[in-house]
Amino acid sequence: MFGLMVRFTCKDEDAAAGFDALVARTGAQIRANEPGTLIYTVHRVDGRPLERIFYELYRDHDAFDTHETQPYVRAFLDDRNAYLASTEVDRLDFVSGKGVDVEH
Question: In what residue span(s) does the ABM domain sit (predicted)?
Answer without folding.
Answer: 2-94
